[in-house]
Amino acid sequence: MEHPINILERYWKFTSFRPEQEAIINAVIDGEDTFVLLPTGGGKSLCFQIPALAKDGICIVISPLIALMKDQVQALNNKGIKAMSITSGISYKELDTLLDNCIYGNYKFLYLSPERLQQELVQSRIQQMHVNLIAVDEAHCISQWGSDFRPAYKNITLLRQLQPSVNVVALTASAKPDVVQDIINELDFINPKIFKQSFLRPNLAYMVFHENDKYYRLETILKKHTASSIIYVRNRKLTLELSSFLNSKKITATHYHGGLSNVEKDKNMTAWLHNQKQVMVATNAFGMGIDKPDVKTVIHLNLPESIESYFQEAGRVGRNGEKAFAIILKNDSDEALVKNQFLSVLPTVDLVKQVYRKLCSYFQISYGEGVYQTFDFDFNTFCKTYKFGSILCYNSLLLLDRNSIITLSKQFKNKVTVQFIISNQSLFNYLETHNNYSIIVKSILRLYGGVFDHTTKIDLVKIQEKASVSEPVLIHTLQQLENDEIITLNLAKTDAQITFIEPREDDKTINRIALIIEQQNKLKQQQVKAMLDYVENESVCKSMQLLTYFGEKNTKPCGICSVCINSKKHKKPRNIKSIKKRIIELLENGEQSSRALLSHLGCEEKDMKTVLKLLLEHQIITITPTNTYKLSHL
Q: pTM, whole model, 2 decimals?
């Protein structure tokens, strides 16, 4: 067996492991059931990839994150390592072929979603594979007490029955003590090796600032710390607005959210990764698999939904070991906003029942029918038809997806099929009198040879490029060809596909998951409360608060967070008299804004505000109609 360090050096070009990695890898190679809790950036994937490469056979990786699966498979393939992922949207025949390749094709990694394990074909082929390791990524999804609980993760124990002699490694970046124990129980670990790296990040200063003008504070932070930065915001619109604002202030910024095309995502990501842009303004869709070591600041303009997600996003900063800052900017409206964004949109059991019934009616699924039927799905039309609010309806569909009642694929697409229904000669006779359609028709014929023989799925973008026409012109032409009975045309714009996993049983179907829905709603409420408690607690070190949340004991103040710094400042006597004298001197030169005063004073903002209040009470100064301060006698 090749030594792990040699594999690391050959494929990843590193000459040493990170803390804990080598011990974890050795335990996995030795056939031990292993639990791994490494915070974001700890290098979890190598903990199963290197043992799998060291041994003969294939490693099965279970992950709920399709985007991350694809990224890891691509990264392995780029290193010359044979890996594949089996996700939704592939035919039975293609699935059959891919699984055969895993048995006979010298593949080292097979990435699967937990839902795939429900298929008999997948189970029977796994039994035939020479499996050397089972890796469960995002293992907190198996725990009903964990965030993002997915009941399909309970199916993972099937792998233990299919491959009883193969050990399992479970990996997660965030799990409280009760979740850790739940994972170990659910995966049927016996005498597991448990590796838990401390969540302590000694180089990371956690800051929470109360700001009425968040944009101004952002500007000052980013001009002070000019290295790479990520700013997390609440919605897609804000990513564009804020990046435009920063660029207007001569701070180079780009943006990222789930609605961008792959081309735009890659372009913006590359500009930020190569430091052509200082700031990436993003929704929480950004960051998965990103390992940029020189990120100096991660700033949350809006409150995250949980400590778990905050710690993961904040953990993308300071991976080079240098001092870095994880900053939350809050104000008085944030509590209402976070409750509105994350709690008011939690669907009740009754609403989920209603959405499910209407979904079955929408696609005319009969009672007891529907298993593995797939439909193109226009979400907006569905909401309008049944007068559902879009956010609550969407979250209901996500619940149905997470609980394996349906699968919801969320990629937008134009699905267009065409077949020519006249003879070749008749078509060219037609084109003689409709010459303006000629270039489009000929482009279709050259791209799709069988279009006379059967219904053919066509790509509008390819035809547009070949014929050099716009999409409206192309669609108008296709519709006219249909009207003239030259072609049959199916022109459907859909934003998703729905596949029904269970037969329709209306309320009975949802009753089976009712307790899970209620429990997850309660968990979400607890997580939001924990997040609000964190930002409001100004008496306990921020690092200690986070470490305690994740079950660590005997913690010590970090000395560099906003709470620790404030406590140091409060130990220094505040010289109110000198601040008062200096404010009067500054105002003798003319009226000043509070920002201008603060920039000259060099004191704490709260101390300045205390003195301004005193000066106003004694009528030494007044406030002008433009909210500046001036001396009363001037």
A: 0.72
